[in-house]
Amino acid sequence: MGTYRIIEISDSIPELPEQLGTKKKFWFHLDNTLYLFKIGRPGTGENWSEKAAAELCKLLGLACASYELATWKGNQGVLTPLLFPKDAHLFHGNEVLTDIAPGYPVEKKFGNRDHTLNRIHALLLQESILPPLDWQPPDRAIKTAFDVFIGYLLLDTWIANQDRHHENWGLITYQKYTYLSPTFDHAVSLGYNLRDCERKDRLTTRDKRRTVEYYAQRARSAIYESRNHKKPLHTLDAFIQAAQKRPRAAEVWLDRLCAVKQEDCRLIFNAFPDGYISSFGKDFALSLLRHNRERLLNSVSAEQ
């Protein structure tokens, strides 16, 4: 694997501003393809974490959005093509959950206790909702959209993604069919917002409440167990509870993770150009991935 390329975007005025999310972003056409450019927030590693997470998705064989490093008017960001055909439509989770939960609070992105695993399960287990369009499942056991979503939850645990809110997954309608969207928006992961002094401390400390392991264990999804719970599920608990609903599918994704070697992950981080991620950023992310991989693989024996 060589060094990741950096695409330079023309200084021309953006065509279509994007309203969702908190980052500065816009859509534009390049070579007859519609792309979204997102500028990482200053003081964070959102650009490298988004790119790294996408590459880690590929190792698992998940359907995922692709990202390239890019610059525009001196601003560093990531570039991603439109997830679906031009005549298709993406409906985010908050829009589709109203079908099974009338009155669902579509505007409440964070702290939304109606965004529960059981509701996602009930929706994605419907036969009318297919796995992602033009994606080949890694095993015949992956049959339903929820089987694929279990893979997304495994990814969230592995990379400590804490941003699986109801606008960061969805369904795509295309030619009278409905598909689960590929997974996207993983920048809030891999310790992207830590300062190097904290990364160094967590990598070397003997204080059990400051370690990388402790950081990993505290990572929470934006998905709740039920409306009666005040806090969302920890990422590993979200995966375990989903796995209990479809054990064979979970086993497939765990097998995929088991096949990923630490050196595979290291190559992903070594491919970043100078200035994108510090040595402490790499070391922390790799340590986090190694620990979360162990936690996920051990979760099987713990449940048996």
Topology of this protein?
Layout: E1 6-9, E2 16-17, E3 25-30, E4 33-39, H1 46-60, E5 68-72, E6 75-81, E7 89-92, H2 93-96, H3 117-124, E8 129-130, H4 145-159, E9 170-174, E10 177-180, H5 196-204, H6 212-217, H7 235-245, H8 247-258, H9 262-270, H10 279-303
Parallel strand pairs: 1-5, 8-10
Antiparallel strand pairs: 2-3, 3-4, 4-6, 5-6, 7-9, 9-10
Helix pairs in contact: 1-9, 3-4, 4-7, 4-8, 4-10, 5-10, 7-8, 8-10, 9-10
Question: Notable features of this structure?
Answer:
alpha+beta, Phosphorylase Kinase, domain 1, Phosphatidylinositol 3-kinase Catalytic Subunit, Chain A, Domain 5, six-stranded mixed β-sheet, 10 helices, 38% helix
Tally of alpha and pi helices: 10
Tell me the count of domains. Answer: 2
Percentage of residues in DSSP E strands: 15-25%
Q: Output the helix-strand order.
A: EEEEHEEEHHEHEEHHHHHH
Poorly predicted residue ranges: none
What does the radius of gyration come to?
19 Å
So what's the CATH class of the largest domain?
Answer: Mainly Alpha
| Proper CATH architecture of the largest domain | Orthogonal Bundle
Number of strands: 10
Please bin the fraction of helical residues.
Answer: 25-40%
CATH topology of the largest domain: Phosphatidylinositol 3-kinase Catalytic Subunit, Chain A, Domain 5
In brief, what are we looking at here?
38% of the residues lie in helices and 15% in strands.
What would you note in describing this structure?
The chain has 304 residues and is an alpha+beta fold. It has two domains: 6-81, Phosphorylase Kinase, domain 1; 88-304, Orthogonal Bundle (Phosphatidylinositol 3-kinase Catalytic Subunit, Chain A, Domain 5). The protein has ten helices and ten strands. The chain has helices spanning 46-60, 93-96, 117-124, 145-159, 196-204, 212-217, 235-245, 247-258, 262-270, 279-303, and strands at residues 6-9, 16-17, 25-30, 33-39, 68-72, 75-81, 89-92, 129-130, 170-174, 177-180. The chain has a six-stranded mixed β-sheet with strand order 1-5-6-4-3-2, covered by helices on one side. Strands 7-9-10-8 form a four-stranded mixed β-sheet. Helix 4 (145-159) packs antiparallel against helix 7 and helix 8 runs antiparallel to helix 10. 39% of the residues are buried.
